[in-house]
Amino acid sequence: MMTKHSDLLKSVCLAVLLSGAGPAFAQGTDAVTFGQAVEPQGLDPTVSSPVAAGQVTWQNVFEGLVTIDRDGQIVPQLATAWTISDDGLTYTFTLREGVTFQNDVAFDSSTAKFTIDRIIADESTNGQKANYTAITSVAAPDPGTLVLTLSDRNADLLYWLGYPAAVMVEPSSAQDNGTQPVGTGPFKVDEWRKGDRVIMSAWDGYWGDAPAVRTVTARFIADPQGQAAALQSGQIDIMGDLSAPELFDQFVDNDNFDTVAGAGEMEVVAGMNNAKPPFDDLRVRQALMMAIDRPSLVQAVSAGYGTPIGSHFSPASPFYEDMTALFPYDPEKAKELLSEAGYADGFTFDFKVPNRDYAQRAAEILQAFFSQIGVTANIESSDFPAAWIQDVFKDTNYDMTIIGHAEPLDIGIYARDPYYFNYDNPDFKAQMTTIAAATDETEREAGYRKAQEMLAQDMPALFLYSYPKLGVWKSGLQGVWENGPVPANDMTDIHWMQ
Amino acid sequence: MTRLPKSLIIGAIITAIMVGAALLSRVWTPADPTGMNIVARLKPPGAAGLFGTDQIGRDVLSIIMAGAWTSLGIAVVATVIGGGIGTLLGVTAAAKGGRLERLVMSFNGVLFAFPPILSAILLGALLGPGALTSIIAIGIFMVPVFARVTRAAAIQIWARDYINAARMAGKGDARITMEHVLPNISAQIIVQLAIQTGLGILSEAGLSFLGMGVSPPTPSWGRMLSESQTFLDAAPHLVLAPGLAIAITVLGLNLLGDGLRDLTDPRRGQNG
Amino acid sequence: MTQAFKRLRGLAGAVMVLAVTSLLIFVLIDAAPGDPAEIMLGTSAQADTLAALRTELGLDRPLMVRYLGWLAGVFTGDLGQSYTYGVPVAGLIGERMLVTLPLTLMATVLAVAVSLPLGVMAAARPGKAGDGLASLFSQVGIAVPNFWIGLLLILGFALNLTWFPVGGFPGWGDGFWAALWSLVLPAIALAIPQAAVLTRVTRAAVIEVTNEDFIRTARAKGLSRRRALWRHTVPNSLLPVVTMLGLQIPFLISGAVLVENVFSLPGIGTLAYQALSQRDLIVVQNVVLLFAVIVLAVNAGTDALYARLDPRLRARK
Fold it and tell me: What count of other Cβ atoms lies within 10 Å of the Cβ of residue A327?
């Protein structure tokens, strides 16, 4: 089977949208400032910890062969079309012509090859490298064509090629992208005032339609109260992801702002050490799950914003299915399960909790729920990130912990060996292989649904809730992402209405 | 009979109230300090308790009381241990003099030069957050303070005539220190204990504020302040209550220390 | 023993102390759980990626080699690269000092401006209303945590009155006054405990000098109370105040760590705190070294000042 995508449809849609929205464009306002909580340590999303870097530069400065749109769909970007061979092992991309990097170096198959080779190289420091290891070789038969050869089928590869970790870079500037990013996007970075802001301006050499705003500023405000104050005082126009749900309501009631409590990609789960008794007993894990009233938890931890989850996908994922009904809050049933498992009198365990507000608050509430079924959780604060990564993640020296998993499509972590859950389920691993070998979207989607159900039944972690993406922006501003299929602040479609 | 200094009376009353609240919290609080009531979250002072409720609906007054036990407990233990070691170093340095004295004093210099909070965070990184970490981190900074104060005081005692008499009687350094020096500088030590316990409470609050204090659900004033940052506007009572608790407790201990100093050393009291 | 030799020995001692302290910190942070590469890459990285990053950062070398490498760099003026930021530490520290230096200076100026008149007023008429006020201020000022003052200032002046920003620092590039304005509240929070300590010291020093013979003589010769106070007593009381200022520097820095945290200021305190929690050893090392040098320099400075201004002291030694 051959699949062929084209961006023709997208341009048609865009044209329709533009002609509809055109007259309403604001006249004098061509600058926008967005806020984000975490300042990246470098601006290059292809090295080290990519989330915060991507939130500043992905789509604004850097672009990929394909990209992921606001609905989580894969759409063409620097590749206009691609074909996948019948055996799923050869991907042939047709590259867009006339694209140059912001330092005037042309984008072609050789720069694309450089980018991919750099990701999969032995000395690669790309944090997402694991998602690209199926690629065994990259060829550039002519300037407009890029060919990837895979060792195994990998139905997710195209998605990951759209992810911030795989944006296109070029050899002469790649080394300095951390401080002076050079991409193919519509904005270039003018200045980075460390600890405060990154200032970007529209780049005239951009291959696509010029963005509606000329200046984009990213401001870093860690304190939630500061984020709210900056919005109120007009220092920022958009906060795509307000850090404190308690501060969201004041904007909902305020006519000067538009708000959307969208779905984010972060799933908060209480991971358990599945190799260690009593957590190796399915009945115990299910009992603990049934001891938790998730809606109350969401109410207490994030002021009611956020969605209870029953498996490891959030509503932001296109494959999400609600599985909370499988093991609903039922302390009586939970006690029965515990006595079946031989823990009629309950048990005591250590609860290693990152010293972060949301985690500690959630842990205190879980502790109260567990005590209702006779289980005692001793909370032990863990210095996050350093000590937590060492103790829990690396040494798996823990009973239970709690953490938010922010990466999309990361259900595969339960098939990883080693991973901190110490969860070893051959069936689930086989399921992940099945998903990778999917030959079409329907198969892939069915595969992910099945995987969610397997986890919901087997409960290697207590699935708690998905963190909301609480967007607040000035009314009159259009084009802000409502959901967060990828952690991003895409400013390319932003414009002011009159 | 001399009139008791005003600061002593006020300080003693405040300290007694705080210690009383800490002790009382072990047997009784108005509500369960860990008992959450999610429906009644972030309620202002009034019907929902004298100090209102916190972000998960716990009674703030009860947490403050239980937090007194945590704060005072850690500060007192750290001060007693650090003060004990410091006093030992100080009186030994005074007794032996020479090389040992120089060593102790240069060790002091290093510790004094170091921003206390950074080494506390460093210790937190090494040992992980918790009560023990707080005690060690705070205790370490008590050592040079007590070493300096006791050394200075002990040197004065060593210059007294009766020390020579004791020496003549064949008593060794250790025995003289135990029998003559320590009893005569005990007043200064007690004054320092009160004042340094106050500083210990401030340090504990700072550590908890940065996430390096005791683990939840053990109440801690510093962590309450850290958590309240998010609700500054919506629930200012969550900022006021723990801050006032810290300030009043430290004030009480400082006044107590000053008062004791005035009582034992009227000349210094007069001069400030 | 000559004065110069003593100085030299003192300097050598200080350098030794610094070297030992820095080695200790190196060993301790290395022993602390956590690995910079792992922290940077997050939880989805694989073993080979981690190994590659460790090699790139030089973390695969033995501890002593890294320590000596850093030390050698310091002596040749190269402070090294931050692991997490991937930029030279010297630049990083320089950037952050542009926030912390003005902040602490402002706090010190504020503290002196408040405490000096207050302390002198208290000492001029001990036991009177002014003295009571000063003593109340210093007692309360010492007892309140500076980060709590910060929170109260934010609540009152930033959230309710909206005169000041809630936090953050716009940078000096966007206009001098805006930047300065954003440092006012944090400087006040930092200054209050300092001012409280200094008020006490000033009061005590002024009272002590007032009782000295030359002041009594001046008064006996008919110099007015006010003139005697400002012309002779106060200038001669400044020494202990200056000494206290020097002694307070470690606490000022400690306070800055907390206050910068409350106000989300990108200063050196925030840098040190972040670097410690991310095990960015090289940054921690250099920041600590910087603090130690500042403290030692200030101590040496106050000592020298003392010796110059107070000949009695030289004689006593």
Answer: 25
